[in-house]
Automatic annotation (TrEMBL):
Major facilitator superfamily (MFS) profile domain residues: 6-385
Species per Swiss-Prot/TrEMBL record: Thalassospira marina
Location in the cell: Cell membrane
Keyword annotations from UniProtKB, A to Z: Cell membrane, Membrane, Transmembrane, Transmembrane helix
Keyword Ligase: no
Domain of life: Bacteria
Pfam families: MFS_1 (PF07690)
InterPro entries named among the record's database cross-references: MFS, MFS_dom, MFS_Efflux_Transporters, MFS_trans_sf
Topology term for the membrane: Multi-pass membrane protein
Protein name in UniProt: MFS transporter
TM ranges: 40-65, 72-88, 94-114, 126-150, 156-178, 204-225, 237-264, 271-290, 296-318, 330-351, 357-377
Predominant localisation class: membrane
Oxidoreductase keyword on record: no
Amino acid sequence: MRAFLPMLFLYGTGLCASMQVGLVGPIANMLRGQFDLTQAQFGLVASLITAAGAICATPAGVWAARLGLKQAVIVGAITIVLGAIVFSQANHVAFLYIGRFLTSFGYLLIVVAAPSWMTHLGDRRTVALAMGLWGTFVPVGIAMGTWISAGLSAWLGWRMAVLGCAIPALVCVIPLMMRANPPREGFNRSLAKGISGVLRDKNAIAIALTFAIFAGTTSATVAFMPTMLMDRLDITLTIAATIIGITTIAGNIAGSLLGGILLGRNIQGRLLLLVGLPLMASSIAIIYMAPNLATVIVVLCAFNIGQGIVAGTCFALLPRIAGNNLSMPALQGMLAQFAEIFVVIIPPVSGLIIDDFAWTGAAIAFALFYLASMGVAGRRIAIMA
């Protein structure tokens, strides 16, 4: 119980960070109508949430740890709220970009500091549980952001939806202010040694690249999915967001638990990735071309189970890869940096594909991106991982 509450609140900060990714999907039509955005411009608005991480996530992991993980998480939450205020008050597209870029710094601080703090919450079993839970923060947070944003935007408008998805971050950090910083002994490496260690490790590079392609593609699929469902199946935004929210949360939790159980029985992490990623590739292709809502719901469940398996496995492998030789904060930072580079790139590229080839083109592109991630996992991650 002593470790459970800080684990819960740290996970909550991660959910609030990922909600910033999911909130833009439901307000896409409102933003495009008010600011006359193309699909590609909207894709850039969506992807800028991770711009800071794409620039400096690896060193940020080391800096945040050496300065204090508690302070990093608190500052991250405050920065997310400040960015949301700028975004919500925008009267020109430039302020949309500025707000998202500012929010990206808060997102970065949380995603590198919170999981590193989790590795100091207890014994090996507790840490494994915490990291497995953390593995679901991206898809579950995105789903919650999509759901909350849809409800608030339909009721109070898109500006309040943006603020409503950011303010919970402050609620989560208040209990963490009462906690002491984790011991600094594990974070006393120099910046150069922390970064060079993870950049030289083949497994670290492989898991970071696998997760990066997966994360960038997932960000794009979710950002465009509400609009796709409304366009193709003629349903309302509220229904679309509810379907996405329920299937994402339930499927990811189930997939994460399944992956954790299998890893606990010494099933290779690489094998789980080679099952989860092709499941996601085939599922997303069906979802974006499905002829009816029933098919979408069923296949969305499979897609999100695969997502839970992949995300949970990637994060559960990090302590194994780090071992005693690598800096865990630097490894977490590198994973975030690789992911955020692809989250910046893939949504705008996907928007261009949708502009030229409609939703069928998106279905094929998303499937190929997931298969590329599978290719990296199969060829580059050592069998022992």
